[in-house]
Amino acid sequence: MRIGYARVSTKLQTTAMQITALEKEGCEKMFIDEGVSGTLASRPQFDAMRAQLRAGDEVVVYSLSRLGRNTKNALALIEEFQNKGVTFRSITESISTEGAMGKALLTILFAINTLEADLASERSIAGQQEARRNGRHPGRKPVLTAAQHKAIRKLYDGREHTMRDLAAMFKVSPATVMRSLASRDAPETAA
Questions:
Q1: For this structure, is 9 an active site residue?
Q2: Same domain flag for 91 and 151
Q3: pTM of the complete model
Q4: Residue 190: pLDDT above 90?
């Protein structure tokens, strides 16, 4: 049986393109994980698929990245498939584990994918460090100034207002007020 597996990491993404491609490849059965990271050890639909695999089956994915982001883990999964007599195929990379060249190419592509992800992460971290050295602080700007933190504490400690009152007064969410009150040592130099 030809079995398709599709996955997206967030609920905002869609599996439509992957499913269409898997249908064109003649997948008789499909397992779909939505909002599930490839780095997670447990993926409900993927685990269900693995439990149903039988010798002679073929697992088909749209792209190698759908199987997982970790080279070691993905290669272990493909080896697990092979030990069960199950072949693996990736549509985008045109790779099949049926032949020796396919297996070798698969190993190289996984290594390149991992290298690419690692380099992107390193560049991001380096950019953040450089920004901090230049006095910029990457990320979301603080919602409240130091003076507003102080005013919230004073008003709340005086028992004059509820958290909801303060949230409306400062045009923030009650959760923001709660965090402000929880951090008694809120930065005094916040802008």
A1: yes
A2: no
A3: 0.56
A4: no
